[in-house]
Amino acid sequence: MRGELSFRHLALQLLSLACMLLIPVIALAQTTQSYCEPSPAIKAELKKVSQVYDEDLPYAARLQRQKTMLEELVSKHPDDFHIRRRHQDSRRAGFFTDFDALIADYRAQTEKKPNDPIAVYLLARLLIGRQTKEAIALDEKLLQQTPDFPWPHLQLAEIYNYPKFRDAAKSKDHLKQWIAKCPNERASLNMISRGGDKDMMTAAEQRLRTQLEASTNDEDLPYWDNVWTLSFKLKPVPEHVQVRQQITEDVKKIRARNVNSKEWLQTLQAGYKQIGDKAGERWADDEMIRLFPKSETVRRIIQMRYDEEHPFPKPDEPEAKKQAYNQAMLQTTSEWLKRWPNDERAWSTRARSMIALKGSNEDVEAAYKGFAKAHELEMFSISTPPLEVTVARFYLDRGYRLQDVPVLLQKGLAEQEQMEKSRGVSDLFTMPEEVEGNLAYTRWQSWPMMAEAYARMKQPAKAGEVLAEMAAALKKKDRGEKATDTQKRSYAYSAVVYWQAVAKVAEAEQRRLDALMAYQTALSARIAGPARTGDKDELSDNAQRLWKELGGTDQGWNAYLARVESKSKPVAAEVASWSTKDTAMAEFDLTDLEGRKWTLADLKGKVAFINLWATWCGPCKAELPYVQKLREQMKDKKDVVVLTLNIDEEVGMVQPFMKDNKYSFPVLLGQAYADAQGVNSIPRNWVVTVDGKVMFEGVGFGNDGEEWMKKAAQVIEKAKAGN
Hints:
By secondary structure, the chain is mostly helical. It has helices spanning about 1-20, 30-35, 40-50, 60-75, 80-90, 100-110, 115-125, 130-145, 150-160, 170-180, 190-195, 200-215, 225-235, 240-255, 260-275, 280-290, 295-310, 320-340, 345-355, 360-380, 385-400, 405-425, 440-455, 460-475, 485-510, 510-525, 540-550, 555-565, 620-635, 655-660, 670-675, 705-720, and strands at about 580-585, 590, 595-600, 605-615, 640-645, 665-670, 685-690, 695-700. A 6-stranded mixed sheet has the order 1-8-7-4-5-6, covered by helices on one side. A two-stranded antiparallel ribbon has the order 2-3. It is globular, with a radius of gyration of 30 Å.
């Protein structure tokens, strides 16, 4: 009997083992705790990598050096999660990363080591934004197979916060599980703060404050900024005075440590900024400049300070002021370039100022060559359109180095194409079909100049090729009767650009009658005249000039204009920067800076104009004076309300900003609400009807404040009329 039991016991053990072998198990090379935080030794190694950022090296060279250091660390510590994650960061950094190749490489790594949780996680991390559904599947499978590996929880919490995958319950659940497994890790602080869950925010603020008050490690200092941000968010606006008092005491204690490290100064900068102490912030900046003169941080401080003290003139300001600004910019960039000879920003600004001042051909060429050299070394900044487009236009207008015009434009386009390929089309956001990217914009800026340059260089075949490319692109943009207002405007704009290019090529080839017909076709396609009286209208001027050269009279020209102007224009012409919507506005319960609660019901029976902005947003700051004007213009209208929705993360900065600028419009603190609505760009304006529907949406600010005011008033009136 005993032998029978022993045999049965052995058989059961073997059966159990066999069942276990059927379940794929991913082996953990590290403990859960070591996955949460790097060991002190690994922290020290990674700190050396971070310190390269402030070495006196071009940006691209710094990136390459960090990448090399991390490759060596991966060889030395092949199973360390934190090193491999940081190595991936270095490989994906920069504007022109080939993500397809990178994904293929990490996919190959997972095929070689399918039981390596780090490899699977890193592949999923790369897939977010490109193949997010697969990333979710990989993360969920990882959690089933290796429940002690915590990072998929944080990754899924982030994914479920994006508009196209938004699931607040799932995001919160994964965030809670991440915190339970890694209670002292700080990677989730921004998510906790943006999520708006009061309990999670309170626990994080208390836990972090306790940790930081006990810490003597300089690397912990920057996390004080998270504590202060959470403190402001957790208190109602009337109690922000007490929060500022607490931060003032924190800053005094931190400053008394007098350690003169970069982290120490950055923490003091953040603290002074949170409490609105401009003198203290200036002191911290000056100390950073004194102690770390060659760092990238200092370069940024100096240039940002200059921008704040010397704002770019507004479009409606006198030409003399704009000229004075550009003259001062030439002197300033000369000083910057002595200090930073390969500063892309300085060279680019210098070239643009020279062009604005109508400088000599040779000076503009020298400035562009300086930029091109610096850009090759740095690869730090990208503008739209690229500087090459601006320089090509200058050369074309001057008839200078025409052979370089197509070369410059092709270079700019190639860079934009490479960047667009690198970024790809994100699957995290729902982008309106009519929205065109930077590449399309750059193409429509470049093509006309390229065609004209070829024509003027007696290369008609090449000019014809460019015009054919434009014609094909224009045909694709024609959506017929199904087109939205935005698509109609975009098509009309491109049609004008195309026919004007056809006209200029025809003129260059001495086909003057063809040119006149093309100019007139462009005028007919245009949906509106010049924005302001007195603006130069190149299209109309060229058409009228050619008309007269061919024997036409003023009387005949006026008759032609009357015929063009009598034609019906697209409906969108009068609200050119707005798109039509018909979506119910989501319910909200938000507090303004006075402590008043606002809900959607408070807007009932009124047309609401709602501006979305942040203190860190440059275009927002340019737009806000006109929001203030609009509010003053509408304040006596009982059926209209003008208010704003601020999406700052650091809400304590909003009240001082309003006070400094003497703005009086209502400000609702709504960062979490905006996130929930999928808002991914500002400034943005919503016009909401009396029954709570967003009827119009305007995105961006075109720097023409008076035109903005006019269109804002128009869409408000349309919303009041219900059409």
